[in-house]
Amino acid sequence: MLTWKKPSLSDKALFESFLCFDERESYETSFATRYIWRNYTALEFAVHDHMLIMINHKKGRGSYYQMPCGYKKENIPQIIEYLQQQRPTDYLFGEVDEYFALDVKEQMGDRVELITDRADDEYIYSVEELIQLAGRRFHNKRNHWNAFQRLYSFETKSIDSQEVHDQCLALLREWFCNKGLCDEELQAEQAAISETLNNLKALRLESMALYVDNKVVGFTIGERLTPKMAIIHFEKADASIRGAYNYLNQHFLETHFSDMEFVNRQEDAGDPGLRKAKTDYNPIKMLKKYYIRWKQ
């Protein structure tokens, strides 16, 4: 019988002993991601047979296991049987990358089906391109970036003092108030960002607050996933400040991640406005994620 528990900050080293491999690309393989979204995804974990086992439940999706970290391909049929005996789930696995999905398909054949959703695909960009904003493809973004610098008196700070932290929380409350907290995922995001701001050092995250006329108008939080891949966990700004998002995006990468090759800016969750914004930044790759279930 597996012993399940909810993750805490003290589990960071344990998670990273399983999650840290240089080939990973998905933001789902970050302990910070797992931790800050643990309540929304009802995440629980256990360690069994040298594997990290994680189970999630999302409203509208149901329950599913994550990729068992440390698995051996030839043992996948036995792993599935064991996990379903422990806690049956709506999907065998969810939010897994293509490598694992194909391993499952190879071992299980026509007994399973792989399901993808465009809304779950993660956007991968060239760090160099997002810093340089060169060429016709980035002409509009460059214009907004230039306009911000021309129109405003601004500065940036790390979120490393209580004063900056509190100012970012105030902006966060204002941002969500303007959105209206009618959506469960928006409510979960507000809680996740608040907790992230409270645990930047413990999670070893990079941060930046953007000020215009001595007032915080935006902030962003990210981390180094691998020697090549950065992640942007959150990015919020006052949309009435022209170019605030553009400047924050570019300057944060230039300041903290200029030595990286790629940056993962997560999925668009099916939101049309977010999809356009992310697509307009010209991703070099869309990282597919899969749900796997018994064939219907």
Automatic annotation (TrEMBL):
SUPFAM superfamilies: Acyl-CoA N-acyltransferases (Nat). Pfam families: LPG_synthase_C. Residues 24-292 form the Phosphatidylglycerol lysyltransferase C-terminal domain. InterPro entries: Acyl_CoA_acyltransferase (IPR016181), LPG_synthase_C (IPR024320), UCP018688 (IPR016732). This is Phosphatidylglycerol lysyltransferase C-terminal domain-containing protein. It comes from bioreactor metagenome.
